[in-house]
Amino acid sequence: QITLKESGPTLVKPTQTVTLTCTFSGFSLTTTGVGVGWIRQPPGKALEWLALIYWDDDKRYSSSLASRLTVTKDTSKNQVVLTMTNMGPVDTATYYCAHRRPATKGAVFDMWGQGTTVIVSS
Amino acid sequence: DIVLTQSPDSLAVSLGERATINCKSSRSVLYNSYKDNYLAWFQQKPGQPPTLLIYWASTRESGVPDRFSGSGSGTDFTLTISSLQAEDVAVYYCHQYYSTPLTFGGGTKVEIK
């Protein structure tokens, strides 16, 4: 059974850097084809993909946010960490991490965490 | 970036009636080598994360009721709920995983008439 859980600060000040951690179980990020992605959702708005890290450490980022994002993995801890710099009020959102299946099984986000809320305010 | 445009933004359907949601992609998401469309549909209920309904445009995820079906190819896709149930009230998103940056549609809110 695959589970993911996001954690991080609820409140951050403008210009600060936020670090979010996704702790998962039920799969290994050393398995060929597996990935973990980050997706956010501002209140009342649509989903926005942020980043994706693969089993081989290949990393992909949103075009508009690439300069502010860094994604890393710690396979020994079963964790993926997303760092976002220079936070602003528009970054207020629920941040989700999700398991991405290998391409042979659909290459799609099939399991999501419950999300963690980040509010950017002074 | 591939832009996904969903329509309508919202719709109200009577219980037991059909609901149809459209998703148009700015570029084809058909991966010719495998004849697979890299298009998925998610359901999101209030206060919950999205759940996967359909992938490869028409493959139902395990455990998803068969009243949910996906169709289409290339740039035009449809999610159909054949007989709307009360528990289907949610926002539905299409999602392309053909290429990065990955993108989602703007969402369609489905309500009971």
Describe the structure in your own words.
The complex is a heterodimer of chains A (122) and B (113). With 122 residues, chain A is an all-beta fold. Chain A is built from no helices and eleven strands. Chain A starts with a strand and ends with a strand. Chain B is mostly beta strands and 113 residues long. Chain B is 0% helix and 51% strand. The relative contact order of chain B is 0.33. The chains are: A mainly beta (122), B mainly beta (113). At the A-B interface, strand 5 and strand 10 of A face strand 6, strand 7 and strand 12 of B.
List the helices and strands and how they pair.
The complex is a heterodimer of chains A (122) and B (113).
Chain A: E1 3-7, E2 11-12, E3 18-25, E4 35-41, E5 48-54, E6 59-61, E7 69-74, E8 79-84, E9 93-100, E10 109-112, E11 116-120
Parallel strand pairs in A: 2-11
Antiparallel strand pairs in A: 1-3, 3-8, 4-5, 4-9, 5-6, 7-8, 9-10, 9-11
Chain B: E1 4-7, E2 10-13, E3 19-25, E4 30-31, E5 36-37, E6 39-44, E7 51-55, E8 59-60, E9 68-73, E10 76-81, E11 90-96, E12 103-104, E13 108-112
Parallel strand pairs in B: 2-13
Antiparallel strand pairs in B: 1-3, 3-10, 4-5, 6-7, 6-11, 7-8, 9-10, 11-12, 11-13
**What Rg of chain B is obtained from the alpha carbons, in whole angstroms?**
13 Å
Helical residue percent band of chain B: under 10%
* Order of helix and strand elements from N to C terminus of chain A: EEEEEEEEEEE
Q: β content of chain A, as a range?
A: over 45%
Tally of strands of chain B: 13
Sum up the overall morphology of chain A in one term: globular
Q: What integer is the average pLDDT of chain A? A: 97
Report the portion of residues of chain B in β strands.
Answer: over 45%
Low-confidence spans of chain A: none
